Amino acid sequence: MELGQYNTLTILRETDPGLYLGDTEENEVLLPHKYKPQQYAIGDAIEVFVYRDNEARLIATTLIPKAVVGEFAYLRCSQQTPHGAFMEWGIEKDLFVPFKEQARKMTPGSWYTVYIYIDPKTERLVGSSKTKKYLSNDNITLKKYDKVDILITHITERGANAIVNGQHDGLIYIENIFEDIRSGDRLPAYVKKIRPDNKIDLLLQQEGYRSIEPNAEFLLEELEMAGGFLGVTDKSDPDTIKELLGMSKKSFKKALGSLYKARKVKIEDDGISLI
């Protein structure tokens, strides 16, 4: 029975407080009645999340937390106390973040990227907004063009900082952002470059010839949704293209060229239209 993780357990018996569940090593945990399924039978297997209640007792729930132990999540601070902050994370008991684990003092109502772990002293689930110490770029197996999953942590004038595959620190430079993104967004991305110092440069669109096909499909869809005509051409201002389609002029020209060669569109003086 793993604390802070999903566990598939067996329904052992029903009592006044709820259902008692067990694992193959004869460990037991209570699933309160309010979380039990509508239909069940003794001996059924059920997947639950296991955590500790306010009295440090193991408890099970069918509610789904925003993240489990060893993962990062973008969470809202519900309150700040003399001992630390509490974060809303999808289950009844809020996640505690001690003062010593706050990168900066948390404010109720604000959102923070938090790493979830088990405190070795109390054996309780806690969080930390000092996320850098849980990331490492020492042993990167990624390579250019690899598709990755990212969590946007914060955006600066330099670009969007992101956690890559839940393990590494990466950056999307501001000049490579052509769509509306915000802190807390979980997105697919692509490795643009692994620098000599192991810093990871990211893109939200595939680079070079690899981006022609998906961008061409996107442009085709936009044309169809617009009734077959868009008032932009390869001579249009880059800002106009970015505002209308959310892509750079370079990506637009490649996509347009691909559609033109495939005889899907015709280019006119005032725009492009479907054939």
Mean pLDDT: 92
Helix-strand category? mainly beta
Strand order of the largest sheet: 3-2-1-4-5
Number of domains: 4
CATH superfamily of the largest domain: Winged helix-like DNA-binding domain superfamily/Winged helix DNA-binding domain
From the 3D structure, determine the CATH topology of the largest domain: Arc Repressor Mutant, subunit A
Instruction: Please outline the major beta sheet.
Output: 5 strands, antiparallel
- Tell me the distance between the termini: 61 Å
Helix content: 10-25%
Q: How big is the Rg?
A: 25 Å
The overall strand count is 18
What does this molecule look like?
- It is a single chain.
- This protein is mostly beta strands and 275 residues long.
- It folds into four domains: 56 residues, Beta Barrel (OB fold (Dihydrolipoamide Acetyltransferase, E2P)), CATH 2.40.50; 61 residues, OB fold (Dihydrolipoamide Acetyltransferase, E2P), CATH 2.40.50.140; 58 residues, OB fold (Dihydrolipoamide Acetyltransferase, E2P) (Beta Barrel), CATH 2.40.50.140; 66 residues, Arc Repressor Mutant, subunit A (Orthogonal Bundle).
- The protein is built from three helices and 18 strands.
- A five-stranded antiparallel β-sheet has the order 3-2-1-4-5, with no helix packed on it. Strands 8-7-6-9-10 form a five-stranded antiparallel β-sheet, with no helix packed on it.
- α1 crosses α3.
- The radius of gyration is 25 Å and the shape is elongated.
- The termini are far apart.
- The model has no long low-confidence stretch (mean pLDDT 92).
